[in-house]
Amino acid sequence: MDAIDRFCRRNKAYPSVPKVIVTTRPSTNELPEPSADLFEVLVLKPLDTKQRDEYLRKWCTVRGIHGSEGRALRGNFRAKSAEPYIGELAGNPMQLTILLDLLHKHGEATPTQRTELYDSYVDLLLAREANKHPESVRKHQKQLREIVPFLGWYLQSRSEEASVNTRMSVADLKAAIRHFQYTYGKPESVVDEMFEATSDRLWALTSKDEGTFEFEVLSLREYFAARFLYRYAGEDTRGFDRNSVFRELLRRPYWLNTARFYGGSAEGGDVYILAEGIRDEITENGAPPSVVAAWTLLTDGVFASRPRQARDVLSSLCAEQNLNVLLDALARREIVPLPEIPQLPSSDGPDPTWIRLTGQITADPTKPDITRLVRALRELLNQRTDFTKWWAQHMQTAVSGPNEDAWLEMAARCEGAAGFSLDLDGVDLSRPLVAQFVLDTGLVPPAGSKFEANLIQAVLDGLCPNVSSIRSLPAQIAVAFAAEGFLATSATGFTDDDVARRRRQEAINYLRRSGSPLAAAAALRKFRAGEKGSTFPWSNTASALFEHTGRCWLASQIAIIGAASPHRPAFTRHPGTTPFGPNSHPATLLAETRANATDQQWWREQLKTIESADGDTTMDGDLARAEWVLALWCVATEPVITSLFTEWQSVFAQLPELRRLGVTDVALRVGARGWLERLSTPAAPADETIRALWDSRGLERRRRFPPSTFSPNPSPTSPPPLLTVARAQRWLKVDTVGTYR
User: C or N terminus of the chain, fewer CB within 10 Å?
Assistant: First the structure.
């Protein structure tokens, strides 16, 4: 890794900097990785349903599988993919290929467990080899079934110990096989006989380069290594503890795949031994590689035949000290969620892991690590539906209570009530962030209910500036007209990031399907022919929103953002309307604030008119004052703002908290876009909020980077190579000597 990092740093001086890609398996952050300041971490996702179907079509075409045969295979594949553990197998191209081969051959009898799948596959390979060389393979089939697993162990262990090449010369291969035969007192003459009949393949070993052999793919080498360890370790030692082998495998990321095959080999009573080994390892060691490896075996279905042991293993893994390790690994896609909670008879009671985690949340929903517990339930245990029902029951009880906000926030951070119909009419939506939390839970208020109407009004009042869910009508309105979506510097279009653009378009589509006229209003955010580089998109959208909802903060903020933008002013006039007050119109607000950006007297007169016209301090009465505060800050020139700063501070301070939050949110967004010039004259901001607004002016536009799921951890001391341990503890008869020549 050091050599790669040095190479990349030297490359920066080249006229054309080369692109460097380092491919590696997940290592649970335990093995050396490229420097985080030089490389961006990308994780390959499993094949999705569309990609699997495309692969299946091409696979059938290449193999000439058509008509009813192809339809039967595709139907069988879809049915198998719906099973808990097969879905994960089908997401990997190598394992998908094996699965399709076996489905075509065996149909419904195809195995559903990972190790069993490879068992069938290597049998298929051996059958194909027998068809090519019937005499040789038939004669030595029994020897091959012993020798090739040994070669898997030999190559896998030597690769870890000395970083040797994964290939073997024919001479080395013959020497290793002779050593194996000699160790067990078998005739060594079989070696030459096996190689007489073939020059390019020895079961799962292939000769891609002349004079060398290697395993067809790495996972086959790991499979055979696991088979060899499972069958031969401790064979001549009375009372040998097989868990000593298993636990050593769990501790080493290099051997993770081998550990999975090793665990998958267990049947009957051996499953109990594995479960005991995991519990002991987690309790006595608990290192991240062991936790991740044990979780992987659980999700592989190794304990599916013994649900009580699966439940015990799950409980051990989800202990308090392991949750962060598992959640981090899940975020890096090194593990997958549990396909299903172990299903036991009702007499066994509910799952203890579910009871413990939900009990911790119920006991104190305000605790700092509540998000971690919720993620464990929804993501690790894969219990999204059950969590939603459980949360809804507790949320209804918590309304108007001291923990109401905590229950809302825990679901809002993960859209924990996605699509669930729930009426929380007793919740006070006028408090900061409450309405936004309600929408981000993903709950759907009953159509036409008072609760839905109150949520829509909260959106129009600007109380939901950062909604991410689009499950409900109020949430769709919030996303479609969000301030962030109107901060465009391009003269030809709105350059949202991919996620925001897709979410906004989906929100508009939902509005259109429900028959809402606001879908057409939101769709006006575009530069039509002849409108490029103008403020028409802002004026048109704000005016259309105003026509359907009346005077509201959402329409006003869109108009003010348009006036603050660097585009030329363009709008449709509305005679008889004013920029502020009861008779105001957003198009007039945009037009006149831009036209009078340098006129200090005009801004004073507008404030005087507002103060005399409104006279009340209701939410609606304070709307004009909030509009004036935001427009002056975002649209007026620096000299005008400086001269009116004292008045501006006074009006801002007198606004209700919710109006101040709305002004602050939009002002900071516009400042972050780089549209506001710095105020040159020193001033004395009255509080920290105004200081933050002052400091946000004159900023360069901030470039956004997607968050990385990579979390560099200090590398612990690596355990010794497994071969060293195997020799020290005398696991295997074949490893009593170091070389086989």
Answer: C
SS (H, E, C) 57-119: HHHHHHCCCCHHHHHHHHHHHHHHHCCCCHHHHCCCHHHHHHHHHHHHHHHHHCCCCHHHHHH
Query: Alpha-carbon distance 277 to 58, whole Å?
Result: 43
Tell me, yes or no, whether 290 lies in a domain: no
Greatest CA span in the chain, whole angstroms?
A: 109
- Residue 629's φ and ψ, nearest 5 degrees, are -60, -50
What's this model's pTM, rounded to 2 decimal places? 0.81
Based on the fold, state whether residues 448 and 594 are members of the same structural domain.
no
| 91 occurs within a structural domain | yes
Range of the domain at 469: 383-480
Cα–Cα dist 161/725, whole Å: 11
Could you report the per-residue pLDDT of 550-609, keeping only the tens digit for each? 999 999 999 999 999 999 999 999 999 999 999 999 999 999 999 999 999 999 999 999
User: Do both 416 and 471 map to the same domain?
Assistant: yes
Task: State how far the Cα of 509 lies from the Cα of 206, in Å rounded to an integer.
Answer: 54
Backbone angles phi, psi at 54, to 5 degrees: -65, -45
How far, in Å, CA of 168 to CA of 461, rounded?
A: 72
Same domain, 520 and 472: no
Distance, CA of 126 to CA of 101 (rounded, Å):
14
Verify that 403 and 448 share a domain, yes or no: yes
Q: Is the pLDDT of residue 703 over 50?
A: no
Establish if 232 belongs to a structural domain: no
499 inside domain: no
How far apart are alpha carbons 425 and 396 in whole angstroms? 10
**Once rounded to an integer, what is the mean pLDDT over residues 409-425?**
96
Q: DSSP per residue over 606-642, as a string?
A: HHHHHHHHH---STTHHHHHHHHHHHHHHHS-HHHHH
pLDDT of residue 88: 64
Considering the domain architecture, whether residues 575 and 687 belong to the same structural domain is answered as yes
Task: For the chain, report the end-to-end CA distance as a whole number of angstroms.
Answer: 33
Tokens of 481: 């007209």
Query: 518 and 446, same structural domain?
Result: no
Report CA-CA distances (Å) from 412 to 35, 510, 562: 35, 20, 31
Same domain, 550 and 420: no
Pick from 91, 112, 133: which residue ends a domain?
Answer: 112
Q: How many CB atoms lie within 10 A of CB 674?
A: 16
Judged by DSSP in three states, 703 sits in coil
Q: Which helix (H) or strand (E) is 722 found in, with range?
A: helix 722-728
Query: In angstroms, rounded to a whole number, what is the distance separating the alpha carbons of residues 96 and 727?
Result: 36
Range 307-310 contact pairs with CB under 8 angstroms and sequence separation of 24 or more: 307/342, 307/343, 307/344, 308/342, 308/344, 308/348, 309/271, 309/272, 309/275, 310/275, 310/342
Q: Up-side HSE of residue 350: CA atoms within 13 Å toward CB?
A: 8
Helices (H) and strands (E) in the chain, counts: 35, 4
Percentage of the chain beyond pLDDT 70 is: 91
Q: What is the pLDDT of residue 618?
A: 45
Strands 201-202 and 205-206: antiparallel
348 dihedral zone (left: phi>0; alpha: psi -120 to 50; beta): alpha
18 conformational bin, left if phi > 0, alpha if psi -120 to 50, beta if neither: beta
Domain end, chosen from 81, 112, 143, is at: 112
The number of domains in the chain is: 3
Residues 6+ apart with CB under 8 A from 302: 113, 260, 263, 264, 266, 271, 274
Whether 547 and 693 share a structural domain: yes
